Amino acid sequence: MRAEIDPAVCILPLLQHRISAGFPSPADEYVEKRLDLNHYLVRNKAATYFFRVVGDSMSGAHIYGGVMLVVDRSIKPKYGHIVLAVINNEYTVKRLYTCNNVIELHADNPAYLPIRFKVDEELQVWGVVVGTVTRFAV
């Protein structure tokens, strides 16, 4: 099936067949439904933004340099969420934790130390990362 290409809507076939890295099989008989990438990735259009990642601090979460983040500002950040934070006027993506009244931002790469904030220090969580978009060089 061909994708329906429209600037406002991108609806592609979603296959119910799980893909193995081994023997290929014909996929046409496994078409489950159509997938609208906007609907899948964007829950709140007015509050959703895309950011390009630089660096490797979140590689353990499969967020690599060059990947596009989908960030929703309408979601209340919770313990363990991957968030886009602003520290000293710079954006960073980290995982949000709290422990003993201390807020911490953790990288998902052991080469990076946690960033700790005390009760009187300000941390601005800009939004919650809800997904990523990766395009391969072809």
UniProtKB/TrEMBL annotation:
Starting at the broadest rank, the lineage of the source organism is:
Bacteria, Pseudomonadati, Pseudomonadota, Betaproteobacteria, Nitrosomonadales
The protein's name: Repressor
Q: Which domain of life is it from?
A: Bacteria
| Cited InterPro entries | LexA-like, LexA/Signal_pep-like_sf, LexA_repressor, Peptidase_S24_S26A/B/C
Ranges for the Peptidase S24/S26A/S26B/S26C domain?
Answer: 13-130
Pfam families assigned to the protein according to its UniProt record, in alphabetical order:
Peptidase_S24 (PF00717)
